Structure formats: structure tokens, C-alpha cells
Amino acid sequence: MAMAAASELEEYKRWIGRREETVDVLLPLHVAGLEAVLDRDATLPCLGAAAPPGAHWIIRTPWQRPSELGADGHAARGGFMPPVPLPRRMWAGSELSLIEPLRVGDEIRRRSEIADVAIKEGRGGRLVFVKVRHEFHGASGLAQVELQDVVYREAADPARPPRAPEPAPPDGPWRRTIMPDAVMLFRYSVLTFNAHRIHYDHPFVTKLEGYPGLLVHGPLLATLLLDLVRREAPERALERFTFRALAPVFDTAPFHLSGAPDRDGRHATVWVKGSDGGLAMRAEAYFRA
User: Fold this and answer.
1) Pair 42, 35: CB distance under 8 Å
2) Which one of 147, 194, 271, 275 is at 20 to 30 Å from 64 when CA atoms are compared?
């Protein structure tokens, strides 16, 4: 078993250094659509205006044809990402460095590279971790850098009792409650050209994947946390933002955003609390001096 895992890892490591580049124009319509999903004023922004944090996630991924998609709506394995056969894929977290804001109307060039691959054994079986580095270049040069962690894992064992959620911290002074629904998730999927069926196909996600409802996108949760920071500390400019997804969030019940700044005002911790009181996502926001 150990030799098989070592051989598999060696195969995946061949993908380290693989690169991909895409180009898109950050249109006013994109930014207005994102603001609408966040329940903000969706007036079309002016060309040259600073896009809100999280707008880099609506920059188009490569346009896959139907013949290039897997059964779950994801791009077929073995292109840019290594061909991991495990059925479930999750955006586990990211570390985002914000050098300068992306600007509405700018051509945005995204350069991506596979940085690392690792195999681990978890409570639910084998896990494959893929770290991807993304650079976002605007009209003035490098604007943002993201280190993204993607994890592949085995299908859930229905005989295994679910793990007890990690309790969320007590509510902080920053608070907002979100009632997710299929419309919100569909609109975000359209903005991000995300065809993964777990976010919009209820029969697929409940009957084939075994989840209780549609899954809220990890980057949507992270964007909502960024938006909470923007609402509560509008005068502060973000320098770095990190998040870690800890438990899935579904469209079956409200979830809660909360957070608190440090006393010096240079940092804030924000999180997502699921309907069960468990911690679903934790993030750290660091502000410029």
C-alpha cells in the first residue's frame, strides 16, 4: 500500500510546475453582478474604479466545452490539474496577497502554476492536496497573488457517523445572517463559469453525492467574509486575507457571518458559523498600516 501511494505521488508530482494562463477583461457587468449577489447596490461601476476584494474569483476560468467536462460538471481530470481519481474535490483554503486592487475595465491576466502535491491519510480515507499559485496582473502589473489549496478525497461512507462539528466562537461585534438559496448559488456559478453540479443540481447533489442540499461555494463564503470586513471597516485597505474551509454549508438553513477586529485595528478574525453552531470557515484579514 505504501509503495502504491509513493508511486501515485510520484506520478502526480510530474504536474508540479505545470502552468496555465488566461486573459479576461473585468467588465462593469461582472462587478455589478458580484455586488448584486452580495446584496449590495448593483449600479454599474465606472471604468477605472477599484473592484471589491474577491472580484478576482469571477475572472473567467478556461472555457471548457461540454466534451471537456466530467460527469460532475468539473473539467475532466488530467489537464492543468493532476488526474486524481478521487471523486470529491474541495477548495480547502487560500492565502491572498493584495498588492493593489483590480480595476474595472482592465485586461486581467491570470497566470497559474501547480506548486506542490501531497498525499495524506485522514479520518475518511486518502486525501490528495494540490497547491496552486495564481498571479493576477492588471494594467499596472502584478496586482494579487493567491496560494490556493485544493483537496481531493474519497466518497463519504454512509455507515460512518458524521464527525462532530468544531464549535464556532461566540458571536463577535461584526455580524450578518445569510439565507442561501438556489438562486444565489446559481448566480454565483454563472459569474464564475463554475459548472460543478453540487452547487445547482439538487437531484445530483442529494441522490448521487449524498449531501442534504446544494453546497455553498467556498469562494462565495470567503467573498461574503471579505464583504463583512468591507462593511464593518470601510476605511481600511486590505493587505492580506487567508481562509480555511472546515465544514460544508448547504442551502437548507441560514448561516451566520461574524468577526472581531484586534485592538490595534491592524487585523481582524472573521468566520462562518453553520446552522448547527459549528465553525464552517475561519479567515484572517490583515490591513495596511
Assistant:
1) yes
2) 147
**In degrees to the nearest 10, what's the CA dihedral of 204, 12, 98, 187?**
-10
Q: What is the end-to-end Cα distance of the chain in Å, rounded?
A: 51
Structural domains of the chain, ranges and CATH numbers in brackets: 2-287 (3.10.129.10)
- The whole-angstrom separation of Cα 286 and Cα 270 is 11
pLDDT in tens, 202-237: 999 999 888 899 999 999 999 999 999 999 999 999
**What is the CB neighbour count within 10 angstroms for residue 265?**
11
Residue 242: band (very low, low, confident or very high) from pLDDT cuts 50, 70, 90: very high
What is the DSSP track for 191-253?
HHT---GGGT-HHIIIIIS--SSPBPPHHHHHHHHHHHHHHH-TTPPEEEEEEEE-S--BTTS
Cβ proximity of 242 and 284 under 8 Å: yes
From the DSSP assignment, how many helices (H) and strands (E) are in the chain?
5, 10
The answer on pLDDT for 160 being more than 80 is no
Q: CA gyration radius for the chain?
A: 19
Q: CA nearest 258: which of 174, 179, 177?
A: 174
